């Protein structure tokens, strides 16, 4: 599956449904972002069931601000509408694959319980 351009208009819709969505916050002037793009693309072709989104932080400054993105690339993982991971820095392919495995193994009932406990 190819990557999906995420915008302020479609972000909530794409990340709000069940399943896993990875989000790559990037910009065309960012060297590490450009070097990371082929790794991200290859991973998107390996994992049919996962949505791989990309947010161009230049075009979508409001979206970058909403998630307090200060350093790019930043990789975010969303599962069943819940942000379960967010970290700046380009990941090597093995680390990206490892992240995907970890997100797939998450017990989302447990994650929701932890979130509920922290929000009080």
UniProtKB/TrEMBL annotation:
Database matches in CDD domains: TRX_family (cd02947)
Domain Thioredoxin span(s) in chain numbering: 1-105
PROSITE patterns the record matches: THIOREDOXIN_1, THIOREDOXIN_2
Record bears the keyword RNA-binding: no
Name of the protein described by the UniProt record: Thioredoxin
Any Pfam family the entry gives: Thioredoxin
Encoding gene per record: trxA
Listed NCBIfam families: thioredoxin
Similarity section: Belongs to the thioredoxin family.
């Amino acid at each position: 599956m190819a990557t999906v351009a995420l915008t302020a208009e479609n972000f909530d819709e794409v990340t709000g449904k069940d399943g896993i969505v990875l989000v790559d916050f990037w910009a065309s002037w960012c060297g590490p972002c450009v070097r990371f793009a082929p790794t991200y693309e290859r991973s998107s072709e390996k994992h049919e069931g996962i949505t791989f989104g990309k947010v161009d932080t230049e075009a979508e400054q409001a979206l970058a601000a909403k998630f307090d993105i200060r350093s790019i690339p930043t990789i975010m993982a969303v599962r069943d509408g819940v942000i379960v991971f967010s970290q700046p820095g380009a990941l090597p392919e093995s680390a990206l694959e490892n992240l995907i495995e970890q997100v797939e193994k998450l017990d989302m009932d447990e994650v929701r319980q932890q979130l509920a406990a922290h929000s009080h």
